[in-house]
Specification:
- The chain is mostly beta strands.
- It has strands spanning 3-10, 15-23, 34-41, 48-55, 59-67, 71-72, 77-78.
- It has one domain (3-78).
Length: 87
């Protein structure tokens, strides 16, 4: 059975950074030596930067810098929590 270590640090009212380390779990394609994924997510819920590294299908490091807010697709902006509903 694998082990997971998770640390979430709140940086501001709407921003956090999350570190996750998984050891002993199975990820991705078993035939690959490593997998690297770096990208951003914008104009969607919890948008931000992410970095994923998987080695030998048993070690995974994930780092995500993200926004806590949800995206209002109709208004093309973040929801204003105190003044509107997400329904």
């Amino acid at each position: 059975m694998g082990k997971t270590f998770l640390k979430n640090i709140k940086l501001s009212k709407n921003k956090s950074i999350e570190f996750q380390l998984d050891i002993g779990h199975e990820y991705g394609m078993a035939s690959e030596w490593f997998e690297l994924n770096v990208g951003t997510r914008s104009k969607q819920d919890h948008g931000g930067f992410h970095f994923n590294f998987i080695f030998m299908n048993i070690f995974a490091l994930m780092i995500q810098f993200y926004d806590h807010r949800h995206w209002n697709y109709e208004a093309n902006r973040w929801y204003h929590y105190n003044s509107e509903s997400e329904d």
